[in-house]
Specification:
The structure is a homodimer.
Chain A lengths: L10 H12 L18 E8 L6 H6 L1 H7 L2 E6 L9 E6 L7 H12 L4 E5 L2 H6 L3 E3 L2 H7 L18 H14 L3 E6 L1 H13 L6 E6 L18 H22 L3 E6 L6 H10 L3 E2 L2 H6 L4 H17 L5 E6 L7 H16 L1 H6 L2 H11 L2 H9 L2 H9 L14 H18 L14 H8 L5 E6 L1 H4 L5 H19 L5 E6 L6 E6 L4 E6 L2 E6 L9 H16 L20 H6 L11
Parallel strand pairs in A: 3-4, 3-6, 6-7, 7-12, 8-10, 8-11, 9-10
Antiparallel strand pairs in A: 1-2, 2-13, 4-5, 12-13, 14-15
Helix pairs in contact in A: 4-6, 4-21, 9-10, 10-22, 12-18, 12-19, 13-16
């Protein structure tokens, strides 16, 4: 946790943060019942969401099921003021742009008559009772700034009885009426369990949907999680610049991996904004059951086609989660996890190189063949680098380097193959172009963008979205609602503010071999307008250099109101500018 | 080369490029003699620069020496219009933001009565006679956009007689009156030679100072080359975001390498803008003759001190050229180049591992010891990966990974050392803090930023600077001046526009074992105000998290006029906002 006082700022940068602090953030009318800021109250809508039908569910949520009845609440203006409430807020998991505005919204909606505590360093700080009172003047200084550094964050999952007991102790010691958790799908799952656990303590627990991955979405109520817009705009700035660079220097293929642990929303959004020559969407690969070799061939085809046209450059966008969506790769990983566990002792006794041969004999033929095709460095990672549970850390696999290496090999094979033909019908080369293609030398550079985007100053959309999510979450807490997630839809039309019963989002999934109730990640849907738009255009992007450099986020001027492209497309908005008021 | 027509743009991005096109760019008054755009003319100033005293110089520039007399010219308003001139422009080397505005400035100052040709793909295109006529409407569409993709670029050096002959053929075929070369120090050296070569052909050659590295500077006349401002602002945005991320997540040290092949201006500027915990400046390391071990120890000290204070995070900024500025490393590389060349045959005959031992016996003791301390991967690069001339490609050494690995080792040694003491007197820890330090686990992530910044849309400063450099270069060409570089100083006070005789910038240097006349790279000076400001503050940055996230480049609003910090400091400007008018 970095205190505000500690910062020594130059005139230059001070003015940037100060200017951001001064940028007006819109307040939705539901919080302005009499013209000044007032917490909203809540009324039931006619919408009852379905709940998971399982023993596990009934056992887990006896209290919340009865209380919320799975009914969606909507925020309405109120003239009643809550007083003397004590509300605490924490960040959970990786940072996302806009977190500070949520804290600002909560603090301001609670006003002078209630107390707001910041919990330092996430769930860990909650258990360690590391709380401090947040003043109204403090939030003026964090308004519109990036990062989670005002409070800090942490990834601890509150699971064990002793952890829950420490939470209860903290609630009692600080006499808390509510805890607001700003986090992703897992953290919001935890909110549901904590809300159930604290239901009889008079302490509400409220969730706010955070994730730059964009995989926390709820049909009709939450088109996107906060942070996605800013992060994808930062990545799009960089990919746009690299696209320009590739066309200016005319000698490199850039392979760019994008953060997004599971879903490919980030890669899709960046593709829609920048029109790269090639972009992979994991969900499509899973749907089509593509093999690694097919993916590699498809990339190589585009590269070779362009080489024939004299264009020895381009950009390939790769989602971080790709590998786990390739069915044969997923199978290989599962088999390796099982084989390496089962024969741990035998394998450890073997000398270096014979380990691989031993493991090979224990794999199914298809997995064994796939393993053989992988570059040495990747093979070593798969065989020898495991986490403390003996599992492979899939996120540690440098997918971008794997693809570069396999694509290079495929290109050199294809060039020397007799009678090479493109699978893609739109790729045709005449004889001269085929010769040009054959003399092409593949040169590549790879990048990984993730940390660069998680702490940018929130885009005007994320700033407005999170500030109002904060006002909403604060209002829920002041109204003693528990087990809800704050949500805003109708983003181009003033905003529709609701509270979603978290238990209605849970479904049963196997995790670490156990059935668990979790919030399912929203994946890219093949039938979504955003994916279709990408699919309809990608061949022309590969062929014609229709790329775009969308530039950096603008906080002032004519370009400062844009929404994510995939939100505009999927929600069928008539404008790409947000309007929250 | 990407034609404008080929681009298929979405409404979203089209508006970005269109809005950029519409952003007004200031025109210096010297080009507005009667209120409308007119080429400037030139008069001699009293300033005569000194020329290199060497036989090589006298031999190389008999014509230019007489013509320019090494006198600086200044641009003055003119009422005469040139007509029927035929001027060609090319990009040379890596792209830098603002290149398109130079082309726009040249095209517009030449107006309807002269012809401007774009040369495709740099010097290669000049020799291949790949020219096309640029229309006035075309430059409206590239105004303020990033990249060199309007023309493309290339790194070919024009050296041989046959290459010079092809240039002359092109000049004759297109009946060119002038060639304008937009390039870095090497390209501008080439401009001088080409100007001399074409002196009797009636074809002028003019240079425009490009390089994101910022190492093309001329005292009193050129505070900075174009592209530096935009590139460092992009890198500073990213480093600022990562600083926020490190303080938000509180678990990683990020090692960030910055492009800048030789000088450390980029790293220094980014440090001045973001106040990272640690930043290395190659020139200081050379000046102090620091060893690699000393550098590693210094980094480890800051990390350990912060660990004692419970701050297990931070950012280290590393200049790309570092290794060649470490005297012992420079010596090792030189010795390896010589040994590997001399014993090529013997080494090739040896089996894998014994090669290293063989090479070790041929090195001086100090070089041999340094080699032994290096991580395997780096050692392998030094020993086995050479370019076609048998030389090491120093830029291929992943300095950031080298430092991460050596710092990790140093940290674990220091933690377990009895009676560990900090060299830096300002780092003191009490007993509890020392225990905290000892339980610290070092976790790191590394990044390299380079391609991300070379093709950003030019910052408002770079856009204004380059547009006026274009107007100036065009005016020089129309005035039949040859062998000059366009330069602008007084950046906060309207701009002072001059033409610097390129031969006055040349000095003799050994390159590839031969004496050559080259433009010396401007390095970071230890006595410069910018370096001193960094030096005075860095310990407090390491201790107190005084970091700054300066955000992305703003094209509109209150933050759109800033100059590079090091220019403001070194030029002793009273404001950080540029003013060209």
């Amino acid at each position: 946790m970095i205190s505000i006082e500690e910062k020594t700022m130059t005139a230059y940068a001070k003015s940037f943060e100060q200017e951001l602090n001064l940028r007006p953030v819109p307040t939705c009318s539901v919080f302005l019942s009499d013209g000044s800021l007032k917490p909203a109250s809540f009324q039931e809508t006619p919408i009852q969401l379905s709940a998971s039908k399982s023993d596990l569910f009934d056992k887990s949520f006896p209290k919340l099921s009865i209380r919320s009845k799975n009914v969606v609440l909507e925020a309405v203006p109120s003239f009643v003021e809550s007083t003397n409430k004590r509300i605490a807020v924490l960040f959970s998991g990786g940072p996302a742009p806009g977190g500070h505005n949520i804290v600002a919204g909560i603090r301001r909606i609670c006003g002078e008559l209630n107390t707001v505590f910041g919990i330092k360093s996430g769930p860990k700080g909650l258990m360690a009772k590391d709380l401090f009172e947040i003043s109204l003047s403090e939030v003026d200084e964090i308004l519109n700034t990036g990062g989670f550094d005002f409070l800090g964050s942490d990834r601890t999952k509150i699971k064990s009885d002793s952890q829950y007991k420490r939470v209860k102790d903290c609630v009692k010691e600080f006499n808390l009426d509510a805890i607001i958790v700003i986090g992703g799908d897992d953290s919001n799952t935890n909110v549901a369990f904590m809300a159930e656990f604290l239901a009889d303590e008079g302490c509400s627990v409220i969730g706010v949907p955070k994730t730059i991955d964009g995989d926390l979405q709820i049909d009709n109520y939450l088109p996107i999680s906060f942070g996605f817009d800013t992060a994808t705009k930062v990545y799009s700035e960089l990919v746009g610049n690299i696209l320009k660079d590739s066309a200016s220097s005319q000698k490199y293929w850039h392979f760019v991996k994008m953060m997004g642990r599971s879903a490919s929303h980030v890669a899709l959004e960046v593709a829609l904004k920048t029109h790269p020559h090639i972009a992979l969407i994991s969900e499509e690969i899973a749907e089509k059951e593509m093999s690694l070799d097919q993916i590699v061939s498809q990339i190589a085809e585009s590269i070779l086609y362009r080489a024939g046209k004299g264009k020895n450059f381009g950009v390939v966008v790769i989602p971080e989660g790709l590998i786990e969506f390739i069915p044969e790769f997923r199978a290989l990983i599962d088999e390796l996890n099982s084989v390496l566990g089962k024969y741990k002792v035998e394998i450890a006794a073997l000398p270096g190189k014979s380990r691989e041969s031993f493991v090979q004999t224990k794999l199914r033929v298809s997995s064994s063949q796939l393993l053989k095709t992988l570059p040495e460095a990747i093979k070593n990672k798969l065989l020898y680098e495991r986490d403390s549970h003996g599992n492979l850390q899939v996120s540690q696999i440098p997918t971008e380097e794997l693809l570069v290496s396999m694509v290079a090999k495929k290109i050199s094979e294809s060039k020397s193959a007799d009678g090479f033909e493109f699978e893609e019908k739109q790729f045709t080369l005449n004889e001269n172009e085929l010769k040009t293609m054959q003399s092409f030398k593949f040169a590549s550079i790879h990048h990984f963008f993730g940390y660069e985007g998680r702490c940018g100053a929130p885009s005007p959309f994320d700033a407005a979205f999170t500030y109002n999510l904060g006002l909403l979450a604060g209002s829920l807490a002041l109204s003693d609602k528990t087990g809800y997630m704050a949500a805003i839809s109708n983003l181009t039309d003033g905003g529709y503010l609701t509270a979603i019963p978290l238990i209605s989002l849970l479904s049963e999934e196997m995790r670490d071999g156990e059935p668990r109730l979790v919030i399912e990640k929203a994946l890219v849907k093949m039938e979504s307008p955003a994916f279709k738009s990408f699919k309809d255009n990608r061949i022309s992007w590969a062929k014609q250099d229709g790329f775009i450099s969308p530039g950096p986020i603008q906080f002032w001027g004519p370009l400062s109101k844009t929404l994510p492209e995939l939100v505009v497309l999927n929600e069928d908005y008539k404008t790409s500018s947000f309007s929250l008021k």
